[in-house]
Design goal:
Layout (H helix, E strand, L loop, with lengths): L3 H8 L7 H15 L4 E5 L6 H16 L4 E6 L2 H16 L1 H6 L23 E3 L6 E6 L9 E7 L5 H4 L2 H15 L3 E11 L7 H8 L5 E4 L28 H10 L1 H7 L18 E3 L1 H7 L5 E6 L14 E9 L2 E10 L3 H14 L8 E3 L5 H11 L4 E3 L7 H13 L3 E4 L4 H10 L7 H13 L8 H6 L1
Parallel strand pairs: 1-6, 1-7, 2-4, 2-5, 5-6, 8-14, 9-12, 11-14, 12-13
Antiparallel strand pairs: 3-4, 9-10, 10-11
Helix pairs in contact: 2-3, 3-4, 9-10, 14-16
């Protein structure tokens, strides 16, 4: 049997197959072979997922088995029809007929008799077989249509639809009342999309039946070294630099961090937040912070990822937060993440602290993780910083964060405005669904430390805890 990857390269000799294209093609092949029943593929926009799954895969599958009954769905019937026409052009091609001469459409053979087979934009039959392909938009009818393979390619058009509770409900009801009713015991499903919203169709399916789906998530910027063994990428590397360079992606991230994390990294934030909500955080300018602050020290909280993993490369960044207690309010002065080995981290920390209002009273708080005590000792030996170990946590991270969240809910946490705000809020308000949670750790440390720093605070602090 001609593999799916070989098929694509035969039909499209100039096709630029990157490692992630090959990986997605392999997963589609596993689905056809019966090794996967339901497959989700999350990839950034304009990275070729529709070409593989919605255009090439149905043609290859019908060549392997001309009796397959395939339905291709998208947010609009017109787009679904475009996919259908593309599949028909592929089947019509000489290259395809050389590979699969038994799979052909009405009108392709001069001696073909009128046998009632259909060939339209939204439906075509495989002549001499029971197989067909039907294109339908979300909301369209599938009455009387049995489905062996259901392909859903982006059931939402744009942010307006994605953030509409009414439209999300409409998609969910259509899936359950129309598409799902056409499936049988051996039916397979293939859902590809970019994640706009945590409550999208993929999110609801994962919550309802997590064991039923194989999920492939490929972010635009690498989050785990080597993509967990799939690539040679390092953290922060772009997925397809020849088409979408790092500078381009970073500009997109700066323009709209929240949308970037959803569409490009596949980490949609729950609307309003999970444990905490975005609107709970107050804001102030740096000038306002300077005016309010008298001699209150700014303290620093470090969640270090120092440690040699995977031949010297660490999957997780170190997170650092500068925070200050003024009266009963905790001011978040600045936060950032860095990927640094210890020598570079030792040089970086004094510079960072000096740039963010550090003085002789400032403390650098470090969590004593597995190697935390050695990190603290190295910092004490190599720098003049006031280094303090934070108490070793006894409870789970989510438990600790929920315990610290009331002070945020009471609007006692104020963010000093800066370009770091959106990334910080996306991670903190997206917890626990985000890939990384360094900001959650250091925010929890800061709240727990600063609320206990002084014994002569106003009574409101005592009432909060």
């Amino acid at each position: 049997m001609l593999s799916f990857k070989q098929f694509i390269l035969t039909i499209e000799p100039n096709y630029e197959m990157e490692w992630f294209h090959a990986y997605v093609a392999d997963q589609c092949e596993r689905l056809l072979q019966g090794n996967i029943k339901n497959l989700m593929v999350f990839m950034p926009p304009q990275h070729g997922k529709s070409e593989i799954v919605s255009r090439q895969f149905p043609a290859w599958a019908l060549g392997i088995n001309p009796d397959l009954k395939i339905v291709g769905c998208s947010y609009a019937a017109d787009l679904a029809k475009q996919f259908s026409r593309s599949i028909q052009r592929t089947i019509d091609s000489k290259a395809y007929q050389d590979i699969f001469p038994d799979t052909y459409l009405k009108g392709m053979h001069p001696k073909e008799q009128n046998t009632g087979y259909i060939r339209h934009d939204d439906h075509f039959d495989i002549v001499g077989h029971r197989g067909f392909y039907k294109a339908v938009g979300v909301g369209g009818s599938l009455t009387g249509t049995p489905v062996d393979i259901a392909i859903i390619d982006d059931p939402v058009k744009d942010a307006l639809q994605a953030h509409s509770p009414t439209y999300r409900k409409r998609v969910w009801e259509w899936y359950n009342s129309v598409l799902a009713t056409r499936l049988h015991n051996r039916s397979c499903q293939l859902l590809i999309m970019t994640r706009w919203h945590d409550d999208d169709l993929a999110g609801r399916l994962i919550k309802a039946e997590p064991e039923e789906w194989t999920v492939v998530t490929i972010p635009a910027l690498c989050e785990d070294n080597n993509d967990k063994g799939l690539s040679v990428r390092k953290i922060g590397d772009p997925l397809w630099p020849a088409r979408h360079a790092l500078d381009k992606l970073l500009k997109q991230k700066r323009r709209a961090p929240r949308e970037f994390n959803a569409l490009y990294q596949q980490h949609p934030t729950v609307e309003g937040g999970n444990v905490v909500k975005r609107e709970w955080f107050r804001r102030c300018s740096e000038a306002e912070f300077r005016a309010k602050r008298f001699k209150e020290p700014v303290h620093f909280y470090l969640d270090t990822a120092y440690g040699k993993k995977k031949q010297g490369q660490d999957n997780d960044p170190s997170g650092i937060l500068a925070a200050c207690l003024i009266n009963a309010d905790i001011y978040l002065v600045h936060a950032m993440k860095v990927w640094k080995e210890m020598p570079d981290l030792l040089r970086f920390l004094p510079e960072y602290m000096k740039a963010h209002f550090a003085d002789k009273q400032s403390k650098l708080n470090v969590e004593p993780k597995a190697n935390g005590r050695s990190v603290v000792q190295m910092l004490k030996d190599a720098t003049k910083l006031n280094v303090k170990e934070t108490p070793s946590p006894r409870d789970a991270k989510e438990v600790r964060f929920r315990a610290a969240s009331p002070i945020i809910e009471c609007s006692r946490v104020v963010m000093v405005e800066g370009d770091w705000n959106d990334d910080f809020l996306d991670e903190v308000c997206g917890f626990p669904s985000r890939a990384h949670d360094e900001y959650v750790d250091i925010l929890t440390y800061a709240i727990n430390d600063l609320k206990d720093t002084y014994n002569d605070l106003p009574d409101i602090i005592d009432n909060l805890f």
